[in-house]
Design a protein that fits this description.
The complex is a heterodimer of chains A (398) and B (248). Chain A is mainly beta. Helix content of chain A is 12%, strand content 40%. Chain A has one domain. In chain A, the strands form 3 sheets. Chain A has a 9-stranded mixed beta sheet with strand order 1-4-6-10-12-14-16-18-20, covered by helices on one side. The radius of gyration of chain A is 21 Å and the shape is globular. Chain B is built from 9 helices and 12 strands. Chain B has helices at residues 40-48, 72-77, 95-109, 117-130, 148-162, 178-191, 206-210, 230-239, 242-247, and strands at 2-11, 14-24, 29-33, 54-62, 65-66, 80-83, 90-94, 141-142, 166-170, 197-202, 215-220, 223-228. Chain B is globular, with a radius of gyration of 18 Å. Classes of the chains: A mainly beta (398), B alpha/beta (248).
Amino acid sequence: MSHPAAARPARCETWKYTDVSAIKRRVPCHPAQAGEDDLTAENLPEGAALEKLPAQTPVPEWRPDPEDCMAAFWDEVWRLGAWKLTLPAQARTSDNAPVILNRGANARLIVQAGPHADVTVIEKDTQARGPVSALEGLDNDSYSSSPRRRGSSEILPPKDSRIRGNDGSFVEGPAEGQYGCSVTHIDLEEGASLRHLRGGAYGESHTQVETLHARVDAGALYDLVLAQSGGETVRSTVYLDLDGPGAHASICGAAALNGKAHRDAYVRVRHSAPECTSNQTMKWVLGGMAKGVFRGKVIVDPGAQKTDAYQLSNAVLLSETAEMNNCPELEIYADDVKCSHGATTGQIDEDCLFYMRARGIPRDTALRLYLESFLSEGLGWAAAEQTARDLVLPDLLC
Amino acid sequence: MLEIRNLHVRAGDKDILKGLSFHLKPGEVHAIMGPNGAGKSTLSHVLAGREGYEITDGEVVFDGKDLLEMEPEERAALGLFLAFQYPVEIPGVQTSTFLKTAINAQRKFRGEGEIEALDFLKTLKKTLKSLNIPEDMIKRPVNVGFSGGEKKRIEILQMAMLQPRFGILDETDSGLDIDAMRIVADGINALRTPERSFLVITHYQRLLDYIVPDQVHVLADGRIVESGGPELAKKLEADGYAAYERAQ
């Protein structure tokens, strides 16, 4: 199959910060190689079913931005075949046994949750090519000295700027490029509740592009956590449609990047019904020449009164060459709503580090603790669950 | 235990400490009092190893070692503890986890093994009770959402758990009501031993009613301008600092 015409490198607002043409080169649209679109599940609740949908299965109904030049691309990818996880009405997972989905980087998935299902899903990319430590690229300058006598010399050991792979070895140069391209559709029926963690740690030459669309019906709750680290180019597009009164969606994200990694998260939340709530909380740790992009867009349709929405993006830059771009957007067509946004980009909080060091904790440990605590806030519900925390934090802070 | 000789400290282009000297023996409690901007907090920060200060002259000897050559964590492991005027919030790190991490980091530095979990919990529970701190508070992230008084009590909890040999209390009384001050002062007094020393930095004499110092020093414009017994604190309470400021 040739590249879909839809993946054209046009002027495309929703992809402003991430080069579509580069993705087109890196993500050939052909049936995935063996294993790359596999998906297995553990701890399925009673009555739940996981099935492989055949190629050419019709694309679920979804509403991407009209100007999203990649929308048709995702549809073509979907038609290569997908997985479907059906969660029946009233399905339950206990906190100690969430559904674990082990998926290849190219897996396509639809999750359909019946009325009042209450399920936790942890989705992990098993084909990630090794995490990248944001700590490795820390500027030497940020290791400033404590008060010393004038004239006393202090030579600090240079930090190794190479990238450490999953097995602890160093990767000297770009390995063979890897790519992943995944499409996910979530459909939550009335009163359903889904906590969804998507985690992955990518090697330095990995390109991952993914799109996720969720439709949330009346009184349903969707809590999504994106916890991905590393990668050369990683772009997540998230479309959330709050379609029924009282629906709620929460999107949290934590990313630790280094080297020349480029991480772009685009989140569009559409409030179509009254009394819906949504929040977005993104946490970034960027070292080396890494670049982060967060575009959060909230659209409040006419009639979606009593909407309550906020978005927040906080970034810590570990080097002078790291970069963060925040672009909050609000489009409000109703007159009785509460919408807010905020973004900060800063350096390590030296006061916090000093506090820990003054208690005897060495700087390296203090820094790790500090970054872990910072990123934890971007893990949302997953931060409180040990299983999720164990799965994600070691990758984020390897 | 602690000898400060002719200490000169600069922050940016401003000289803050301009030849400060005093000597603290084991078991002694010294109070540093002085007006705003005299250099009291600078002194506590420099002793604990905070960055951003330049030592232009003088020396600080702690137990025969050059304190100024050490990193903050080394100073802590050797027994120096700073109770912060403004304790920092650390979201995402449970207070009890933080305490245990700190204790084990200090033990590791001293070449000791990690603390037994049971011993840690036993000591922690006992200390919490003595400081009137609810147990659920230490399950919360460090200082996050705590009131000013709660933060100060958590500082004393940390000091009691870390068992330092020299404690610096930087305006620990600020933000405390009378009852909280009594609890904090009792916690500090319980830690007084013939080997452990304290430097109490405060604006007011009130705290020194509870923690009776061996010596009181008046710090004004970067120097110790007068030293005396506990009666000096009472005199300052009555007369204020105007006389010292006029003398500069």
